[in-house]
Amino acid sequence: MEFHQNICPRNCYDTCSIISTTHNGVLISVEGNPAHEYTLGKLCPKALDDVKKVYSPQRIRYPMRQQVRYSGFWERISWDEALTLIAEKILNLEETYGTTLPLALNKYSGNFGILHNAMEGLFTGIGATTRAIGSPCWSAGVEAQTLDFGTFFCSDPLDMSKAKLIWLWGVNPAWTAVHQMPIIFDAIDHGAKVVCFDTHFSATAARAHRYVKVCPGTDGLLALGFAKVLLEEGLIDPNLGSYTFGHEEFIHYIETEISLDHCSEITGVPISTIRNLAIEYGQTHPACIWAGFGLQRYTNGGQTLRAIDALGALAGHLGEEGGGVQYAQFETWRFSGAIQDPFHPINSSSNADQASVDNLTLNQKQTDRLLNINQFAEEAFNCTDPPVKMLWISGRNPLSQDGNLQQWKKLISQLDLIVVSDLFHSKSSEAADLFLPITTHYEHWDLNSSYWHYWVGVNEPAIPPVGESRSDLQIAWDVSSKLNKLKPGSCAFPISGDEKETLLRELGPPMLDILGIKKAEDLLNGPVRAKYPRTAWENRTFATPSRRYEFFSSRASDAHLSPLPIFIPPLNSSIDAPLRLLTPHHHSTINSQVYATGTANPDYVLHLAPELAQRYDLAVGDRAQIWNESGLLEVVIQPILGISNDVVIVFQEQVEGPLTDMGQLTLGARGFALNETFVNLRKL
Amino acid sequence: MVKQLGFVLDVNRCLGCGACAKACQNGNQLAPLLWRRIRRVEKISKDQIQIFYLSTACNHCGDPECLRVCPSGAYAKRRDGIVLHLSEKCTGCKSCVASCPFGAPQYNLQTNKAGKCQLCHERLDQGMPPFCIQACLTGALKLKELKDIAENQLLRLTAPVPSLRLTRPSVFYKPPRTTKL
Fold first, then answer.
1. Helix A219-232 vs helix A247-257: angle between axes, to the nearest 10 degrees?
2. Which one of A54, A116, A628, B45 has the largest count of C-beta atoms within 10 Å of its C-beta?
3. Average pLDDT in the B143-162 region?
4. Other CB atoms within 10 Å distance of the CB of residue A378
5. Domain A579-683 has CATH 3.90.1200.10
6. A272 interfaces chain B, CB cutoff of 8 Å
């Protein structure tokens, strides 16, 4: 028996540290790493099925080619054939158009391991290309917190155990961050009270002391209503003047523009509840708010998070041990970036087998064509000079997850070559010409950080690659090798290398400093917690231009946003589509990544209030249809508790939606206002 | 009987996530059978909702009905209270399957024998926790020596029906909280 250290690379708060057990080169079990303070030896039910997933009969083990898209007739080809097809197409496009811009990469969070950024490195090494940028997930909230605090930083998740009051606001950790739940339970055991705000009675609400139903998209107004009560009750932090900027303007806005009657009417929360909760929040120290990602996937999502931040500031909870307003962090992701930039100084000093870079210049990569990942298909289709002709999809399943499927169909029809690299076939591979089988995190070296806790660690391979699968890094080397063989100097990305050495180069001086280790190799011994304080903003010195918490942000006004957090109503339903459709994460999946093998539900389940079901003459198990102008979906009816009569929920399936208000400044592209989707409903 | 090991479930910590059931199934290589199951209990009134989950397997009863009815002596109770199913003696007559008030023994169509939670006795004997308890993320599910626990802190898992109480199931739960609306 051998043991190996692995890290779950999924787009998930927990980013668990795993100990895998192998016998004769076969993975036989996985367990949580007991030495990791957040994983604490436990894994979620999704990761518990990793062994089955690695050896699943459905996993694609060889490069495959589909002669006719959507035909499902895949033939096995050799890696050499696959690489030749790809390299010849790239060189052919470059020759035809005189640039490599027709080549596009669409990659995101299927695997957050740092070595997967080899794909970006390969594309940069080829020349100026077309890229998807931004995030479909959290952009508006990231930007809101950046405007307010200066950077995007949260307390250590363990800090929450010290809270006396915890507000779980639009977050469902019982399903999506299970390792936080024992920390919350510990706080409860020490006398903390937990209030859950959501659009429906979630699994987390079931473990809370109190559940407050909020009409979707109105959370920002509710926060401003709470702020109004704090003002009325004299529960404002008397020291605001010493560490915040613009509190007087904000207070003036609350006094003149916010009324509790209006707040109650719009949010659906009774005035007495608003008043009682606000007083409790103002009087209890420490009090922590955890704001989830769902509440910022609206056209007003950034404002919502800024209003919640402002509420925390007003009550004096910022910088408080066990308090604060927690969203997520990105401070432990300061890797050197050498892998995604073949021209990085670290690379020129390394021993890597470097291709000739003579005929490529740094200027070339600066002319990349950047498209918003949330409007990728539309923007890529509209590119004409030159058009997008080849698309590589990596770590994504846009044909399942993106809103604009009709746009995708149009884009696909103009593409000469679509390459999908993945573990399993997906909605997206149905449209692909080539499928490249990739390794799981049990089969390659990698490096992982979390966006919630502060641990960083090395993932080591436990078993050899299954079938002929290759890591993204290996594939990037191989493509570069083939390109350089066919046309020397055509790609500056290395043509070979060592995975472990490559990952060690990602740990540059800033990361070593953050982790408090002397040399990169020290991280090979086990995951390390970054040396950040347990409590965010404990000194109340912020990273904003004013060095203060900014109620009033001139950076916001420079970006044509309100300088103060304000309430802007979410989009309204219409007669044609009277019901708001929400699509939160389910406990059994991460986006379109499915874990339970063989237990897939054949039907989409529509969750709605019993009264709403009655209004449409629907009972449990009835078949129905939801539709809007972008599509139609057959569903099975399942009533759910604590939900408004104008909202329906399908867990984890997404349809068309507009963009969020913020995200442009910090992430380069606005977010996806997924929860501003409206549908109609009829019984079948 | 020297000891009586039993499961104690703090339902206020149980998320119903099913890690216990999955770890049991994977660790004991049971698929498609499950020796541990999650039941959802829901009570709703005007101003409060109570939803909790019961993770249940064999209750390792004080007076196990399976042991009483088995005609081939395929059940045994260890000195630590674990009720063992002895596969080699099982003829697959299903008497236990029919008589257990909790549906713990299940008939395995591949082996043509009954089977049930054995409380991972081999792991326990090596000083390791059962798979279910090792997997529980929140510490909701615990294995305890029941005689050490004050009875007034615990509720029995079963309904107060005489026929159920007769078997004296060694499973307890802590009373669930409700969520105020």
1. 100
2. A116
3. 67
4. 18
5. no
6. no
